[in-house]
Amino acid sequence: MEAGIYEFAVVFVGYFVLGVAGFGSALIIVPLLAFTWPISVVVPWVLLIDVLAAMLHSGLNFRKVIWRELPPLLPSVLFGAMSGIYLIRITQGDWLLLVLGLYVFYIGCKGVKGAPVAVHMNASMRHGAGFTMGLVESMFGVAGPVVMSWLSQRLIDPLLIRATMPMTISALSCIALLMIGAAGGLDHMDIWRNFLVSIPFAFAGVWLGHQFAIRMQVKYINPMIYASLCISGLVLCGRSLNGIFGM
Hints:
about 250 residues; mainly alpha; 10 helices; globular
């Protein structure tokens, strides 16, 4: 299977959103591509691009990245990623994707209404947050809402959240890829071929999204993030229902 105009357009749009909001690329790309491509190919393909695109975004916002947030999460993220690889083998992934889609839509709706989007997490809940990030990222590559839920409790400034999220997602993607690779999920040549040809579209999307974001007023960034979550949640639900009922 070779990527075409549709796939490249989806990649560009997804990473444009990443450039603007600091996350959301996989939330858009994975469900849109999974309608026609196997999820076993789509997820590692997007994770590979995520690593480089998120690094580019972190470089463009280097001075605003809060580096201390990631290291304490890593042990629980690793355990979550291993659990995700196990669960995807023994459960029906479409039902799990439906739950994720409903969660994403719920978070987006709360944010659009101006309500707090995250459950309060104290230091003792760090391991639960990290586990969930690793679990969701290894299964679907879309841990962005979980990361934002955690960082929104730790950082107040939306610009700091926007800068720190890609660094965190890049690390999550690397861990998820290690788990997927260990399980033999990176053996498809389609993944590597499409990854290489998609990089220019991803980088162009990140750079243009960043240029757009730095010209926006801060008060407009969060509404755009939450609106994109509402749309992404609905798309994820549609993708899961398509798999469950064969629609």
